[in-house]
Design goal:
22% strand; Aldehyde Dehydrogenase, Chain A, domain 2; 7-stranded mixed sheet; Aldehyde Dehydrogenase, Chain A, domain 1; 6-stranded mixed sheet; alpha/beta; 16 helices
Length: 478
């Protein structure tokens, strides 16, 4: 691979952007396509360098005003954003479903969650960023939290509204302004998000959607008006962006891939844990960084749990994502389904047993469950970004912890046991950024979210998230 960062970002940030060059008009067009029907929904004209410069001028100008706005005023506008999402959630949810194939009921839930995070930060930002008095030998000394400026957000397609709002709500409430570079296959969602903030009354330039492909990411990031960057995406994407940000000495936050373990101990409530694990793996058609991707079963309950799990997986309804009865839709792009198919095939060739599913038709991949999975197999050691999961058996608690930690990822883990004391003893040995007991790993505006190892660094949400993009100032009066 070429050593230039711009080339790295071009090849990595978006694996297969749908972009074509119109020779007649000499402009790039980015296509929004329905992965279920194959229909082209919209053509987006990519920003020129002049368009990017104009957006940066607007953002820089907006920041000079927005940074000095009161928390009360920012809160009013953020609450209006929440109202806009709630009042028009069917419109926004339909856009998600059409553009990336999420089942419509799950798209509606995503919009509702976005409204929640807007309300959370509208109500708590001032408290999270209140100056903190520190007792020293000064007449007065305290810590102040000041906004940084223009923050670039590079966001993925799998939760095309939520991933953006969990960045935007705290960043804007802290007094920053945002530039969004959305995934090339969810540009319509990016436009709708900008619309939400405009309708809410956020000043011009306060939040802008950049219609650019991956090649132009570095151009934006290198601009001195951009002070920080946040990325949610793959490990290689995060590495490329972090490399550029590091050279420029710019703050970065990365939320990357995951291979979360679902650990079922022999004393777990099997009926409840089975239902939770099916949801953890197969919601959003398995396309989630925090999905439970590895089933670790204690030998004493492995057969019974597998029987119950397979029964529920086979009952999941697949079909048109716009059908409210559909739980399993298509993957967002056909190449993603092909990648998953290949991971499953290689694992079977290495000795795994395909217990159900695994068939692919274009972008649809039938939910797959594999038994006899070992830690050397792709469905264990790689991130499987779709509806497939492998089962691995363990005997002792220490062995379970070793299996949890052995991957290069560290986003989250779910422990299923009737003994909270047992879980408490194991947690200090677990390397992930989150441990959920008797529940799937999920994001909550009130709790910090982020990972370790190749799952990234920094935290989103809660008071930790809103403090990622602020200048923590020491103030000292003699």
């Amino acid at each position: 691979m070429n050593n230039g960062s711009s080339v790295k970002i071009l090849l990595i940030v978006l694996k297969a952007p749908v972009i074509f060059l119109s020779l007649e008009k000499a402009t790039f067009m980015i296509l929004s396509q329905n992965p279920y029907s194959g229909e082209t929904l919209k053509e987006h004209k990519e920003f020129t360098s002049n368009d990017i410069d104009n957006a940066l001028k607007k953002a820089s100008s907006a920041f000079k005003f927005w940074r000095n706005e009161t928390f009360s005023k920012r809160s009013q506008l953020m609450l209006k954003a929440a109202e806009e999402l709630e009042e028009n959630k069917k419109e926004y949810a339909r856009t998600i479903t059409l553009e990336m194939g999420k089942p419509i009921t799950q798209s509606l839930a995503e919009i509702e969650k976005c409204a929640w995070v807007c309300r959370y930060y509208a109500e708590t930002a001032e408290e999270h960023l209140a100056p903190e008095e520190i007792a020293t030998d000064a007449g007065r000394s305290y810590v102040n939290y000041a906004p940084m400026g223009v923050v670039l957000a590079i966001m993925p397609w799998n939760y095309p509204f939520w991933q953006v709002f969990r960045f935007a709500a705290p960043a804007l409430m802290a007094g920053n302004v945002g530039l969004l570079k959305h995934a090339s296959n969810t540009m319509m969602c990016g436009e709708k998000i900008e619309q939400v903030f405009k309708r809410a009354g956020i000043p011009e330039g306060g939040f802008q959607n950049l219609i650019i492909g991956s090649k132009k990411v570095e151009e934006v990031l290198r601009d001195e008006r951009v002070k920080a960057v946040t990325l949610t995406g793959s490990g290689p994407a995060g590495s490329a962006v972090a490399e550029t940000a590091g050279k420029l000495i710019k703050k970065s936050v990365l939320e990357l891939g995951g291979s979360n373990a679902l650990v079922i101990f022999e004393d777990a409530n099997l009926e409840e844990s089975v239902g939770t694990c099916v949801q953890a793996r197969f919601q959003n058609t398995g396309q989630s960084c925090i999905a439970g991707k590895r089933l670790l079963l204690h030998k004493d309950i492995a057969d019974k749990f597998t029987e119950l799990f397979l029964k529920k997986v086979k009952e999941l309804k697949a079909g048109d994502p716009l059908d409210e009865e559909t739980y399993i839709g298509v993957q967002a792009r056909e190449d993603l389904a092909k990648d998953l198919e290949e991971q499953v095939k290689r694992s079977v060739e290495m000795g795994a047993k395909l217990l159900t599913g695994g068939d692919r038709k274009k972008a649809f991949f039938a939910p797959a469950v594999l038994g006899r999975v070992t830690k050397e197999m792709p469905v264990f050691k790689e991130e499987t970004f779709g509806p497939a999961i492998g089962i691995t058996i363990f005997n002792k608690d220490e062995e379970a912890v070793d299996l949890i930690n052995v991957t290069k990822f560290g986003l989250g883990v779910s422990l299923f046991t009737s003994s909270h004391e047992r879980a408490e003893k194991l947690i200090p040995s677990i390397e992930d950024g989150a441990v959920f007991v008797n529940e799937l790993v999920k994001s909550d505006p009130r709790l910090p979210f982020g990972g370790t190892k190749e799952s990234g660094y920094g935290r989103e949400l809660s008071r930790f998230g809103i403090r990622e993009f602020v200048n923590i100032q020491t103030i000292y009066f003699k």
